[in-house]
Structures are given as structure tokens and as C-alpha cells.
Amino acid sequence: MSKASIVIVEDEVIVALDMQQALRAAGYNVIGSFSRGEDALDFIAQQCPDLVVMDIHLQGKLDGISTAEQLQKVYGLPIIYLTAYSDSETLGRAKATEPYAYLVKPFEDRDLLSAIEMGLYRHRVDQRLRRMERLYSSTLNSVDDAIITTDIEGLIKFANPTASNLLRVPNDALVGQFIGDVVKLLDRESQMIYQFDLESLIQQPNHHLLLPRQMLVNDQEQLMVAPSISQIREEDDRIAGIVLVLRDMRDLDAAEEHIRHQAMHDALTGLSNRNVFINRLQYILDHYHLQHHHAVLFIDLDRFKVINDSLGHIVGDKLLIQVGQRLERCIRSHDLVARLGGDEFTILLDGINDLHDVLRITDRLLTVVAEPYHIDGYKVFTAASIGIVVIDDHYKHYHEVLRDVDSAMYRAKSQGRGCRAVFDAEMHVEALRTLQVEVELRRAVERNELCLHYQPIIKLATGELSGFEALLRWNHPTQGVIGPASFFAIAEETGILAQIGWKLLRESCEQVWAWQTEFQFHPPLELSVNFTHRQFFQANLIQQVHTILAETGMPARHLCAEITEGVMMQSNRAVEVMRELHEMGVQVHIDDFGTGYASLSLLHGAPIDVLKIDRAFIHSEGGASNHSIAQLISLVARSLGCAVVAEGVEDAKTAQMLIEMGCDFGQGWWYSKALPPEEAHALISRFAQGHVMVPLNANVAQ
User: Fold this and answer.
1) Where's the EAL domain (predicted)?
2) Which long-range CB contacts under 8 A does 392-400 form with residues at least 24 apart?
3) N or C end of the chain: which has fewer CB within 10 A?
4) Class of domain 265-423
5) Mean of the per-residue pLDDT values for the chain?
6) Structure confidence at residue 20 (pLDDT)
7) Residue 453: what pLDDT?
8) What is the fold of 449-701?
């Protein structure tokens, strides 16, 4: 193991040579010997030794002490003095440079070697201590906690920068002060200032003491902190002071408050969430009082999924936020509005007088929710279906209330857009029946019980076959063939229609085009297919239609996509989809026209081929006003360049009236009910042989 490198600074050449010989003999590496301090400094600047042996009296301007001062300042090198001087003044100057040894000439070689060995050892120990000191200092100065140490009297000996920042006191002003004078901790509950009783703290059996959260008071503010106090002990276990650690709890308090808020509020709308609503509702049920009345409203947005699917989830989310804001504006301060999830909201009305109060608030909600929304350049319309339950003493658990108010909401939804319904006992029975229908429908899909029937559409003026409308039927195993009125809404709400929609479109295209290929009608048979709200706004609608037409061979111009006024008015996206279908060649028909609220400007800007007059305006029992509406719809269609199809033609008199009105096409039981494929095939065969159906003097002429 090689020994340390040493530089000798000695003005007496013989003494310097003797030292070099002795040191080299002992294994040290003497890398330089100089008689002037200036020369030694120049050399060490290039090649730094492990230790310097320094004479005090030197040649040149610098003596040994001055040279040592510079070496200590710049390099921190260990110095061993060699000198013949031992007066107090010289010793005082030398002591200021913190030498590792002081040998008075003359000295023995063994004295020199011992001094060098001890000096090198002490220097290594000092270096380790300095490294540890730097490490501990960096650690204490970089932590986010305020750290303050005191002596046995409570006088501050150390404070890290965090402590200085928290206390708003410069670090140098903290040192030496009594800790209780600068650290003022206010108990949140008692509002008492914590007293730093050093005697009591020293006598604590626990070395570490955690205090409850306190308010740290300084000249500018009060901060929440978590204090802890530890004892500082000497090697003999005597207590030398304390360490106070203050953890700034502002960020943690904010985080805890954020967590509490998230646990109680809906992340999207900021309204109370399901848990808060349920807890509040259950509390009311547990403390029900006959003199204090409550009601629950269950609010579901009509056709929200259509908006979400067509305009995207961002627009859908913004719509939910705005709806929540409108609901909050309509209720009283002591009422509670919450979002259960999706497009479902609930309101707990607290302290109502009677049902009239509830209906008045509900009607205001319906009006406000139905007003248009302006979102990202879109003018969006929606409405609310609201179920109502007035709480009485027979309700014991929140799920009973939610069950009944949900049933009331579905009753409201079945009545049309923007309706309300108050729960009654019949609704519970209806809810059970609806659940049974849903279960049976899912089995029907698995067993292929849902099928298509085809109702002919007739050219009114000539009585010739124009095409068919594909209509869904349920071939029920025990009830026979069931029309869509009893199951269509449930099938659409549960997503069952979306599951089979494209399969039915493919099947109907294949069927009608097979008939056209067989019988060669001219012009070719057309197929009308109803598109549900969900299906029409699916992102892949155009691609799906294009694929099905290509694979079945049916030309696009012979497919008629039927949508209701409600779908067309749902959003700006509806007209865009209509244009995309039209550009593909598919005709666009507006079904049940006259039952919605489509504006003339919207009709004028949309690519519409046919308006279908709803059967309500065709039936004779509707009187002259209904016939006038039907005639007006025909005039509107003519002004838009559209053809007109009348639904619900049930007798020859009605057919004659429609011809006189200028209606182009008709369908209804007078011509034929919707038929299964094999019966429709027989009907087509008769038409192909020249059979026509036209009224003649209000009599059937076949």
C-alpha cells in the first residue's frame, strides 16, 4: 500500500534534505521541497499533496504561517509546523490556521513521523466528518418539514430554511432565541397557545412526542401544522435539548378536502352524488314525521344517448353539466339535487305542503330543461321525463323509494317527451310486467323469434304496388304474433334493437330485392325501413348501410330510410346524416309527420324525399280539422318537392279522399296488413299479374 504524498517547505537546505531522506525511508512520497512560500503555492496549485510540512521562517515575502493560511483556505490541507520559534505570538498566529502538529526544532525523526502519521489520520477523520455534516445539512435543508433544534434551555441552535419560511423569520434571527418566543402553536379546539415547558419535555418518558394538529401563528397568517417533539441525548444519555418538527398540512388538508369532495360529489357536474342522495333519503325515512313532507323526483333526459352518439361524448358531457346547473337554479336552498349516473338525476324536495307544490316545481323543471342548449356551435334540444314519489310512512328503505320513482319516470317517458308522472300502485305491477317482457325479449333474440313482416305501399292513383315497409313482429311461443306496440320501446331502451338492427336491415334488403329479381317490377320495388334513434346516430351508420347494400345487391335508390320528426330535430348532426345517406343514393322519409315540431326552415334545408302523414290525421273520426291538417301536410310536401305517403288507410272512402287531396302513396289495412314473407310473395304475384287496388265511388274495386 503506497503511503501519502508530502511537500516540504523549509528554508534550511540541510534540514530539508534530512527530512526528505527520513520520510522516503519511512515510505512516504516526497513530491516537492521548497524554501519559499510562493514557490510552494505555485507547485501545490499544479500537484496537490496529502500533507504539508511547513517551517515558519522562510525565504521570500511569505512566512510559513501566511503560506499555511492560503493552503488551508484554498485546499484544506493538513499542516505540520516545524520551527525554532515557540513564543506566544507565533504560537497564536499558528494556532489560527488549525495545524495538525507543531514541532519545535530540533526534533527527532520519530517525532516527525509520528506527527505526520497522526496528522494524516486526523485529516481522514475530519474529511469523513465534513462529508457527513454536508450530507446531514443537505438533508435537513431540503426536507419540506420545518426542523428546529434547541439546547437544554430551549434556545434555538439550528433552524432549516423551511422553518425560516414558515415562521417568516430570517434564519440568523432565529438562532439564539427561546423557541416559545418564535414558535406559537394555537390549539384548534381550546384556542390555547402551546407552552414549550422544557423541564416537562425533558422528563417525558417517551423520546418522541406527537401533538394534535395546531395552527402555527405568525405575523402574516395562521397555518395548519402537525408538530412532533423529540429529545436530543448525549452519549451518556443526558438530554441536551429538543428537536421540533413542523409539517405543513396545507397541501394535505387541501388534498383531504378534495378527497372528501370527490366522495360526496359527482366528478362531472359537481352535484351531490348517489351516495349523498341515498344517505340523505335514508335519514329522512328513518326520522319520518307526519308533519314534515318530502318528495323525490327522478329525472331522465329524453334521447340523451342519441345526442351522445351523434355529437360525441364531449358535447354529451357539457349537456349534462348545463342540465345540472339548470336543475340547481330551480330548487330551493334546502332541497338536494344529485346525479345518479349517466343522464339520470334525482331531486329531494324537503318541506313541501302538498302534491300541488311538487307539481308546480316539476313543471318549472320540465320547462327549463326543454329550453335549447348552445354547445360547441351546436343548438341541442332535449327534454326530461320526471317520475314523482311523495314519501309517506309506508316507505322504510331508500331502495323502495327509488324503485317506485323509477317506475313513475318510465310511465312519464311512455307518455312522450317532457312529461311527468306521479307514482301509484299500478306502476309497480307495470314495472314487473316490463321486466318480464325484457327477459322474454332477450330469449326471443336467442331463439330468433323476432321477425319481419312486410306491408305493401300502393300508388294511390293507379292502385299499383310500389314497395313494402319492413315491420318488426314477435313470433311469441304462447301469444302468437305480437305487434311492436307492446315491446318496441323496451327493445330500444334495453339496446336489444341495436343488437339486431343491422341483421334485420340485411334480411329485408335481401328479401325485397329477391322479389324484384323474380317479378321484374317497373319501376322496381322500394323498401322502407325504420331507423331507431340509436341506430340512426351510430358512428358507423353510413358504412353499415353501404356494406349491406353492396352485399345484397340492392341499389341504394330503392332503399328508403324512415326517421321521425323527433330524430330529425334531435341535433344538427341529424341533417348531416340525412345528407350522407342522400349522397349515397338512399331516400330519406320523415315518418309520422305532423306529430312533432319540425320547423319549416329545418325541413327546407334537409334532403327529404317523402313526408309520411301520421294515421291520426287520416282517420275519419278525427273530423274535418284532421283532414285539413293532412291536406296542409300535402301542400307543405309539394312546396318542398317531396312525395306524400299516407299511413292508416283502412277503407275505400279514405283512399278516395287522399287521391283527391293529391297524396301519392298509401298503406293500411284496406290494402293489406303487414304480411309474413310467404304471404307477401303471394300478394306480389297477384300484383305482377295486373291486380290493382283503387277506390271507385267509395266502393272496393279489385
Assistant:
1) 434-688
2) 393/288, 393/290, 395/285, 395/288, 396/285, 397/282, 397/285, 398/278, 398/281, 398/282, 398/285
3) N
4) alpha beta
5) 87
6) 92
7) 97
8) TIM Barrel (3.20.20)
